[in-house]
Protein 1
Amino acid sequence: MSLRSLPPVNAILESAEMSALVDESPRSVLVVAAREAVAQARAELTRAKPGIAPPSLESIVRDAVRRVRAELRPSLRSVINATGVVLHTNLGRAILADEAVRAVTEAARRYTNLELCLETGSRGSRMAHLEPLLRELLGAEAALVVNNNAAAMLLALNTFAAGREAVVSRGQLVEIGGSFRIPEILERAGALLREVGTTNKTRLADYERAIGPKTGMLVRVHPSNFAMVGFTQDVEREDLVRLARRKRVLLLEDIGSGALVDFARWGLSGEPLAREALGQGVPLVCFSADKLLGGPQAGILAGTKRAVAALRANPMARALRVDKLTLAALEATLRLYRDPASLERSVPTIRMLGEPVAAVRARARRVLRALGADRAVKLGAEMVACTTEVGGGAMPLARVQSYAVALRPARGKVDALARSLREGPDAVLGRIESGRLLLDLRTVAPGEIVALVASVVRVLEEEP
Ligand SMILES: *Cc1c(COP(=O)(O)O)cnc(C)c1O
């Protein structure tokens, strides 16, 4: 055994490469990396057959440097979304408008009037910054913002149906993803689930029969992420509104994706609008702010003064409240909606969903050109027309036309290629389709193309 021939940790630390990192890295990180690199070399040597030469000093130093670099990178970092899915929950859903980014930076850096009324100098409400805008944009009497739409549901159910029954159609007992299931959140809110109808058919009479002295509220859920076809029936919103009024029970509608404008303009339809629901008399709606709205993670509740006042009075509201950075981002995003004609430019989510396919195609061409003919051949790269989804559990049936650069690596190592691209300094996320890795340009900004191409080139050059 030649374990003794391994260099001491100090020799690694004193190497030129590691010494060069002292300004960038805390000493503790350097020491741990050096120790781990030596330990790794020792483990390899112990496993190796007798007579095999120990790892060289250079290779251990290289390993230590790699460990330091990996350790210095933030864990939460930006990635290039080449999946084509605009609202990718694993990639953080909506990216913020420049205005929202500026508002967040400013609110983070300096003191704000978060809970202070500047006119009177007395304590104010953090909701005061958003409520007027939400009232204006939604046509609601009052509004409240909480941590996300799941929190909005939890708060509403707890406020109006704790120890009482919440009536929901069996066709709407959905799972949204990330283990958000309507029946479970309902139970945790202290409400008793009263299911009505069947999976495929629910009638007004089903609701009517279920309403009684124990009823706390009716809940209507937009089945965002799936669609039912065939022998189906559901109750019209207006009929449910009338029934709830007549029976004097609250109706909550979970709108889901929170589109503030009609996406039919961009060939996408099927998402309910909060404004429309409120206009048709729904007393309380809730929806996400980081889906089609294109803002930060938050849940918006809007409706009658009475309903929102009850929500506010629930101590749970304090536990679910949003911080100043979210408020800053949301206010700035909502302000952009005052000018609907410019949303395609101002809100990235809408820009990406609404961009004409020819522009996406032009970006795919740019990527191919930048790769160059030789590399393109080596990678089996070509431009392909494709379709992608909206994501975020919105518009499950909608297909967005797009263009991608498809890579078909030699010997079918498509998983390895996808992984190398993910793990690089500029992580690139694509999607694998029939043995190819598609880099979909719909979700790649023009400013990201150079980094995208550099990542592909790097992976190609690292190939043994
Ligand atoms: C997305 C969604 C939710 C959950 O919203 P979050 O903001 O992710 O908490 C709830 N209900 C519906 C109908 C949804 O589409």
Note: Residues 148-150, 176, 180, 221-222, 224, 254, 256-257, 288, 299, 393 surround pyridoxal-5'-phosphate (CB under 6 Å).
Protein 2
Amino acid sequence: MSFRKLSLLVFSSLINCFFSAHVVLVDRFTFIVDDHDLFLSQSAVVEQESNRSYLSGHIMINRLVNDLTLVSTMDIMRPPRPDMRLYTVKLNFCSILNNAYKNKFIRMLYNNYAEFLNTKPKCPLKPNFNYTLTRAYVDEDMLPDLLPDCTFRMKISFQQKSKLFAHMQIDGRWLTKR
Ligand SMILES: *[C@@H]1O[C@H](CO)[C@@H](O)[C@H](O)[C@H]1NC(C)=O
Ligand SMILES: *[C@@H]1O[C@H](CO)[C@@H](O)[C@H](O)[C@H]1NC(C)=O
């Protein structure tokens, strides 16, 4: 761990101890394009500010896209113990966007992140529209108290049938207030 990260961690933990039960720090946020013909432009940025990490980014595609599938996994790492897979899910992304999922947790996640977007995206996704995410963060109060302190890796890929369009990865740390 670099000194900057370490001091950030210590600083964040200190501040956060007074305000909240958890700290979720994101060290790395990437969005990688797999279908270069589809994307006109994209970005992914993580900013560290006092006790929080903020995620921003945008995508712009060049044609209508429908029938999107989202595949996601999340692993937690607590060496020397073996990595633990928290979940593997495969969801109809367009159903999430178009409000067709009745699952309460998915609705809650969607509503939480939709507020950071410049529009409520619907399928089919539109060409030449700049879908922008601005300073999204994890609402610590939303998460259960169940997780032990750990580092985590969350992967999400977007695909149409078996064709991979893009994938993103979020690496971070989850710390519980003592
Ligand atoms: C972060 O710190 C600010 C004050 O510096 C506080 O208002 C806010 O609630 C804190 N957020 C969290 C998640 O602890
Ligand atoms: C899309 O919007 C973002 C955020 O405002 C901006 O940084 C980016 O340059 C825009 N991209 C295009 C291609 O318009």
Note: The two ends are 22 Å apart (CA to CA).
